[in-house]
Amino acid sequence: MRPVLRLAGALTCLAAAGCGAGAGTGPSGGGLSSLGDGVGVRGGLGELRVPPQTSYGRLPLSFAPNVGQAPAVARFVARASGVGVALGSRGLTVGVARRGTVSFGFPGARRSLPVGQRALPGRVNYLLGNDRSRWRTGVPTFARVRYPALWPGVDAVFYGNGGQLEYDFVVAPGADPRRIALRVGGERSLRIDRAGSLAIGPAGDAMRLARPRAYQVVDGRRVTVASRYVLAGRGLVRFALGRHDPARALVIDPVLVYSTYLGGDGSDVGHAIAVDGAGSAYVAGSTASTNFPTVAPYQPAKASFADAFVAKLNPSGSALVYSTYLGGGSETTNSAKGIAVDAAGNAYVTGATGSGTFPTTPTALQTTAPGGFTNAFLTRLNSSGSALLYSTYLGGATNQTDARAIALDSTGHAYLTGLTNSSTFPTTVGAFQTTSAAAPNNGD
């Protein structure tokens, strides 16, 4: 177990897809105010909602150097729809949508310039406004950022690990860990609760750093060192450590924990998931967010009150391969409720739409809305998520039709299940039941 930063009440979290995935767009408007040493991140913030699936809901952060997308005091930034993190020479700032910002400074430390480590294959493009001179493309990303020798013999290292942002204080043999401290910026109350966690902010709406953990490696195994927080007044937090060997390296290993949800600033719901043979995950659902994260999208913007979405994550869960809206115009709703993937990586998505302009393909079974209040749809996206291989309505001329699940056979035929209360739902000659047996308002 490691120290964790938890948000009481509604959980607001990081989604790493907003950085290092090669999204091709820069941050949106809005901004983080600067605390502590003045580090801030300019970027859209939004409350994040429902995780699509636990094992793929933990996307590690990547860190991008500041090339003008943030105030000059920030050296590296990591951002997402709901949270922004900026690493400056004297500390870091974490900004959470609708909860403001918290800065953590390094009191008594020397001015140490953070250094990116472990370059990642992803690149970030910042296309800010209409002035091309301000655009920055091909910005590298890193898995780790290190502050060398913050205090004599003490480094700080920040890195993503699953669904967490971890930072280690690495104490060299003979160095004094009593120098290590954090200063919480702003006029925020601090207290240590019964579990030993550090609570930042008012009761009932506090940010929490769980009780710290520390260890040394002895004969190849970790030996726990007792540790706890100590409040030293005026926002200063230190670490009290138990007996340990000063001739060995020591690691104090806090974790800023966040659940890496996939979403924007509106209501986002994941309904279905599929995994291909390479281990990539395909998530489908509905979103009312105008800033839902998109990557190489077939449809880059929301078209109705709520659109379906389809997102593909790479096998490690570390980045979005593609993410797209899918919906028609007008104040209607579109929701994907089932997804399947063939051997070529094409995604078959099904659900329900109330739109009369849901995207279809020319040779589809039903290219126009058949007339019901809502209709099912079936869409086949190519392996890059950039085009429709086919897309069709499926419904009757009256009432409602809703597809809930999908399966594929080895030849690529799609099998849908769902419900309908339309008496004109299309059936085939010789089918088991060619007419509806249900009452008009109940459905089959």
How does this structure look, described?
This protein has 444 residues and is mainly β. Helices cover 0% and strands 42% of the residues. The protein is built from no helices and 30 strands. It has strands at residues 5-7, 64-65, 74-79, 83-88, 91-96, 100-105, 115-126, 136-151, 154-161, 164-171, 181-184, 190-192, 198-200, 207-209, 214-218, 221-225, 227-233, 236-241, 250-252, 255-257, 268-275, 281-287, 307-313, 320-326, 334-341, 347-353, 375-381, 388-394, 401-408, 414-420. It has an eight-stranded antiparallel beta sheet, with no helix packed on it. Strands 7, 8, 9, 10, 15, 16, 19 and 20 form an eight-stranded antiparallel beta sheet that branches. A four-stranded antiparallel beta sheet has the order 1-14-13-12, with no helix packed on it. The radius of gyration is 25 Å and the shape is elongated. The two termini are 50 Å apart. The model is unreliable at 1-59 and 257-261 (pLDDT under 50).
